[in-house]
Give the backbone structure.
Amino acid sequence: MKIRVIFLILVSALCFNNLTAQKNNKKFTISGQVLDANKAPIANAIIMIDDVKTNSYTDSKGNYTVKVKPTASKISVFTFGSGTFEDSIKGRTTIDFKFGVTTANQSTEIPDGQKGVSTGYGTIKKKNVTNESASIDGTNKKYASYRNMADMITHEISGVKVNGNSVNIQDSKNLWGPVYALIVVDGVYMDELPDIPPVNVKSIEVLKGTSAAIYGSRGSGGAIIIKTKLQAE
């Protein structure tokens, strides 16, 4: 009888510890608002946790919600116009971001003489890109002679192939076949190369390998970042 009682106590203790561990690992929700330097809401800002992109974006009022693990330590906001902003989580469930306030790290300015690479989220120093990248200055008149962007990219940048409207960088592939590059045009994600006349292209950045890791699994085949002259104006 005593052995049975002891056995039941041990089983109960194990179950309690298991439930406690599950509870401690349960995700919690962080919410907040993202504002620019003029206190206007920023829509479509990308929320990242510990430098990993999530599926959470700000709405038209700049509000966001994101679920995080209790082990998460940093939350970041990536915007197309204001750059990046990050802050420590420290167990908080409400975190607001106000660009122009220096309580967190912002990274949009690059010192003179240090070339930048546009990642689609903002601009970073080229020396901080972990793998090779290449670029095309669309304002150069020589590119106007190309019939389309596919010709421009394949002739000017080595290791890039265009199959129909899909772009393959450095023969990227997996067990199921080629892995095509993510296309980002003026901040908009696309799976295929759009039909934009070369004369309307301001710049093209090609991010190879881990240089496109900021896009998560979607950038596993690299990324083509296109900025048009219409957007620049």
Q: What stands out?
A: The first strand starts at residue 28 and ends at 35. The longest helix spans residues 2-24. The CA atoms of residues 24 and 180 lie 39 Å apart. The chain has two domains: 28-106, 116-232.
